[in-house]
Automatic annotation (TrEMBL):
Entry keywords, A to Z: Signal
Keyword Signal found: yes
Highest taxon listed in the record's lineage: Bacteria
Signal sequence segment: 1-21
InterPro entries listed in its UniProt record: DUF3108
Species the sequence originates in: Pseudoduganella dura
Protein name: DUF3108 domain-containing protein
């Protein structure tokens, strides 16, 4: 019994240390352990703003995954609602198995105008695609000390990580053409919760990040079985919350 009194606290301390281990750095080009959970097909999400006064629908967001040999393609489309309808389309290519980004094209149609933006990702630099017709980002050249993942495919990338209690991942992301430079972001599994899904309750991992803005915590709910994102909530500076919820 006396010996057990010393062993038990040591085991509890070891468990606590394991639960709060340092974030795992996920390097671009590293095989992702749950990449196999990404399947060809389409999913649609409703995006809306939630406030004390009610909910305001923004758009229907479709994400399509397609595999072609050693490459994966993700296509996205936003169809906005309201008085000023608009359409935004993204087409991105990646290395299958690692999520290493290759190219990223963004086309926005709004108020009768069409804007084309195209980017190429490399180990130490993100540049504008010179060969893409009407590319408004041809002259872009952003240096990155570490190879960066494509921020506009973060949902699927998180799906390919080994989510579990206490897991933390640190990844370098860059939003192509954005004002922010490539940077490391930390994502934590903060717990689990069953929430409503399109076909009934879904047992989910809760993943959180502050996007390097302390005090502003975004939450993601990933289904434990498929690790598909079911819901996301992100606070906005004006007090409203941006919600993305799976439709099908």
């Amino acid at each position: 019994m006396p010996r057990l009194r010393f062993i038990l606290p040591a085991l509890l301390l070891a468990a606590a240390a394991s639960a709060h281990a340092a974030p795992q750095y996920v390097e671009v080009g590293t095989p992702l352990p749950r990449f196999h959970l990404l399947k060809e097909g389409s999913h649609r999400y409703l995006r809306y703003l939630r406030s004390a006064d009610g909910n305001t629908a923004l758009d229907i967001w479709q994400r399509d995954i397609h595999f072609d040999g050693k490459q994966m393609q993700i296509r996205q489309r936003w169809d906005a609602v309201g008085k000023a309808p608009s359409v935004k389309r993204l087409e991105s290519t990646f290395e299958a198995g690692t999520f290493r980004p290759y190219t990223h094209v963004r086309i926005t149609e709004k108020d009768g105008r069409k804007t084309v933006e195209g980017f190429a990702f490399a180990a130490g630099k993100i540049t504008g695609m010179a060969e893409l017709q009407d590319n408004t980002q041809k002259n872009l050249a952003v240096e990155s000390k570490e190879a960066a993942f494509n921020f506009e495919a973060d949902m699927e990338l998180l799906q390919a990580l080994p989510l579990a209690d206490g897991y933390e991942a640190q990844l370098v992301f860059y939003h192509a053409g954005g004002a922010a430079a490539p940077a490391r972001y930390t994502f934590r599994v903060a717990g689990s919760e069953a929430i409503a899904g399109p076909a009934g309750p879904v047992d989910c991992w809760i993943v959180t990040t502050d996007y390097n803005v302390p005090g502003s915590l975004s939450k993601f709910w990933y289904a434990k079985g498929t690790q598909l994102m079911v819901k996301q909530e992100s606070p906005l500076p004006d007090g409203r919350t941006l919600v993305k919820t799976l439709l099908n």
